[in-house]
Design brief:
Length: 481
Amino acid sequence: MLIAVFIAYLLALVIIVVYSARRSGNKTDYIIGDHKISGFSLALSERATGESAWLLLGLTGIAYSEGWSAVWVALGCVAGILFLWIFMAEPLRRITEKTGALTMAGLFTRSFPGSERKLGTLSSLIIIFFFILYIAAQFSGSGKIFNDTFKIDPFWGMVIGSAIVTLYTVLGGFITVVATDVFQAVLMIFTCIALPVIALFIAASQGLGIAETLVHGPVFPQSVPGASGQITGGLLILNGLSWAFGYTGQPQLLNRMMAMRNPIENRQARVVAIAWTLLAYGGAFLTGIIGYNLVRAGVLGENAALIAADAEKIMPVMVVTLLNPLLAGILLSGAVSAMMSTASSQLIVVSSSMTEDLYLNVKRTAISERKMLLLNKLLTLMVGLVAFILALTMEDTVYGLVSYAWSGIGASFGPAIILLLFWKKFSIAGVYASLITGTLSAVIWKTWLAEPTGISERLGSYLLAICMAVIFSLLFPKKTD
């Protein structure tokens, strides 16, 4: 029954892909949809894209491991999403309309004419580096889900997940990705709501009260040992909240706002996105908390051993153990959807950056729309293959990989986008400072400073980047006509 439900899910995807791919006839359609997509669909697509395997595997796993003290991670993410939709969405739509940019890097190069070649190349290289890691994390997550659900070897699970995502992204580009995202967002939110509710009823049937089922550690984390002594609870809270910073610089999310048709649809999309976020994060977090107590009570039986080895398996193990095959198949399709929606959007971002921000700026020769569309599709296929190979060699958790890539992209582009939208004195020197400082500091901080200081690369690299962007903008102001 599990396999039958998943096959039905794949057939639904095929129908959506075949129908939506016909609307993608040129380069602009492939990269950003050419304003053919409603605000409602873009909002659901942005949320499905923003909450990857990280939400249903990473967040549930950290809630299982750390208890209520992990709530600060969830709050940091929610704060970032709210800031994005309340304060950044409409300015992004306006500046996109004004500049005609197709990519986030294009917003910079068209705002500062003459910088196309150098700035476009730098932006593209940063996106390629961090996003291939990010996509690899999604493919790794698919291996875990298929292994826990269908007992498929993780390698073949990654093959199935990565092949499906890469092929449907190649076929239709942005329009197809958004269409499948809407379907996947509905599945994801159903999973996030249904699973904790069902788990609570099952806990009650085992003699566990609601209060007992929801107790798992303190809300305010205690000090923990670090390389240089004790890391305080306050610093742990700050590190969790620092997830908010990364949202301001994620191209796969911001391009949904760039694609908005008008302010009215933007406001409608905001309501949809915020409601989806609150329900999804609440449900995913509670799944990890409830799962911990079900394991302690012995409700998950022999499968608890799988979770002991990898906390990020708590969600698929709960689904397979607690639910009938039909419902389990639907909820696990939601988990697979989380991976697919994010990976597909990131494939589009990387391939479009390689064509728009790297290839065209370096080659500087005219190329037909048909050839550009073909080039985008070939690059999408190539990036998917590279990410798959990388996923086979990475040993980090989904949470760890996403945190690293999230930090690098967020610290590189986030300060630059914020200052471009809200500070008139922001200059091209500030853009370079943000991109270079954010990239280098994320890598250096993750490698050498995160452990001894107790400060996450998400926080340290972002603050350094925005400070340098402001300083260089003041030292080298933009030219005035």
